[in-house]
Amino acid sequence: MDSHILKTHPDSTIECRQLSDEFLEETLSLMEKVYFAEEKIVGAFGLTQDSQTTLEERQVMKDVIEDGVSVIAIDKNNNNKVIGACLNKIHVKPGSGEETFYGKIAKSSKASAIKSITEFDDYVIRKFFELCQVDCVLEFTMISILPEYRNRGIAKTLYQIVIDLGRVLAKGVNAKKSVDGRELALEPVPETIVGVCTSEKAWQVGEDMGFKLVATLDYEKFKCEEKTLADVQVEEISVVSMINYRHQDLLNDDVLWVVRILGGKIFQCGVVKFVIKLTLSLYSFLLLAQTYFFVFAPDADQLIQYGPLFFQMCYATLGMFVVLLRNRMIEDVMEVIDLWDVKSAGEEVEIDDDDQVFFTNCLMQKWFFGHSKCLIVLIKLTFFVAAPCMTVHGYQIIYTLQHVKFQMYMFNKYVEELTKGFTTCECKLLFDEVYQNEVNFRLKFLIKRHCDFLR
């Protein structure tokens, strides 16, 4: 992976890249002035900019940056000014009696606010390992954008780069970049990317990026100077989210990958699009010629004889037109409904070889008698383009419905196991608080899942 420019923002003046030494100090200053001044959790713990706190917060950032997976955004038109940064940390599950990255900082910290913040972070990271059932996670540790550059999609671009970095690492490609020129080892490799959202707006961004809600945190459980976070926090909720890299290589895991290619991927290739455009131009001309023939058809027999073939070409032309303009049905649907593994596919479809003479052959004989054979061969060659365009929508429907069907099976299974794990009698269940809370959680999950389908 290119370690210089990773992604160009839709605004071509903005470049997003991995953090390097030349931008380190400017990035640290940006996070100090913006992130630590605006982040609600940081504010709730009463962080102040005294010398000890500033020293420790800067050291924490440097320790996070050492993992080589932090990214920044710069403005090329403003002397490559750092306008945003996303600092990220790779965490390995601690063994019995061992401390997390944050736990070590909390024990050694002399600044009370840093100690409280890292104790909170230590709890969250341990919660991630518990919920995600993995041994290594990549955490969105802190992100900030300069106020004058906000609402331009820069944060989403930075998030996407980090997600892509995680995917590359999961495939065994070492894309880490140190800020001091050292060569970083590929290990540890994150299995999951995680993050904590401390506002509804932040969660909406995470949800748009494809993250999944795995837990909510109760602010009443966390205290700072005898006050709970609920007493000082502006927002009411904090959500924990994740993306699992173990099932991200969808094309290789997808049993219906052939259908996926025939249903859209092949038609997104530039060369194929060019060939379809040429074929569409030829078919459009032939349709106009046939339409002219129909208008001045000498008798009804020819209308009956060649009518079906005329409409067949109309369908092929329409298929090519739609493929060029609207050919992302699978991608659009899968952005809403997750692609779960499917272990079986349908039987192969046999296509008969039909050498039927098309209506255009009659026109070639009538109008271009001396060159009719060459023109007919040329037209028949276009069938290799027209035929896939006519079937692409069927493949898209088959592909999508197979996964929707599987989703419904899974939903039905969740409903059947709504009360699984509870063996007490019905009369006791009415007064069993644990049972009531668990069933309430499961019902909310099912309702949200159902709403996702209706979305």
Automatic annotation (TrEMBL):
Keywords tagged on the record = Membrane, Transmembrane, Transmembrane helix
Write out the transmembrane intervals.
274-297, 303-325, 374-395
Please list the GO terms describing molecular function: N-acetyltransferase activity
Under CDD domains, the record lists: NAT_SF
Name the Gene3D superfamilies on file.
Answer: 3.40.630.30
Q: What is this protein called?
A: N-acetyltransferase domain-containing protein
Q: Which organism is it from?
A: Tenebrio molitor
